[in-house]
Amino acid sequence: MFWNHFQQLSDEALLDYYHSTRNIRAFRLLYARHKDSLYRYCSQMNLAAAGGVLEELWRNILERPPQLYGRLLRSWLFIHVNKLLHNATEQNQDTAAEAPLPGSKLLSALQNLPRIERNILLLHMECRLPLATIADIERISLKKCREHYRNGGERLETLLNGSRRQPWRTKEVAV
Question: For 8-98, which CATH class?
């Protein structure tokens, strides 16, 4: 198969082709498509564990094909990374409250959000996953997921821009 034919295949077709032929070019294309968004997500959730989690994820994909059960590969990747991050955080509680990169107001604000709100915001805004898929990842209802998304967005805006200003009111003076 020629390189330009690989470009036209879906992620799922590339994964099937890789596991049936072990053609490394198919895997490299899959890796190139998803490595950046996965790394940004992992590093914003837990920078200390990001490298190890991603290494384990890609090694698992190389060794045996994932069972997608009708999901898109992109959704499966983030579901699996989320589980690996959760396990890594449980094993080492010291990294859960990790300091963000110096000089980054956004990363600092993200790190100050509760884990579930940070996870939902990142998965939706950074990884472009629908809220229904995120609710499945977090094992919560879609309604609860929307509430966390809205609350996290409001809290992030407050952390970045300060609290909302209240209009200045003057009392009417009786003459």
Answer: mainly alpha
User: Confidence class of residue 69 from pLDDT cuts 50, 70 and 90?
Assistant: confident
Q: How far is CA 42 from CA 25, 39, 119, 162, in A?
A: 25, 5, 10, 27
Q: What percent of the chain has pLDDT over 70?
A: 85
Give CA 90 to chain center in angstroms: 18
Do 101-175 and 8-98 have the same topology in CATH? no
- CA dist 109 and 122 (Å) reads 12
Cα 131 to Cα 36, 90, 106, 120, distances in angstroms: 21, 25, 22, 8
3-state secondary structure of 33: helix
pTM, to two decimals: 0.73
101-175: CATH, from 1.10.260.40, 1.10.10.10, 1.10.3720.10, 1.10.340.30: 1.10.10.10
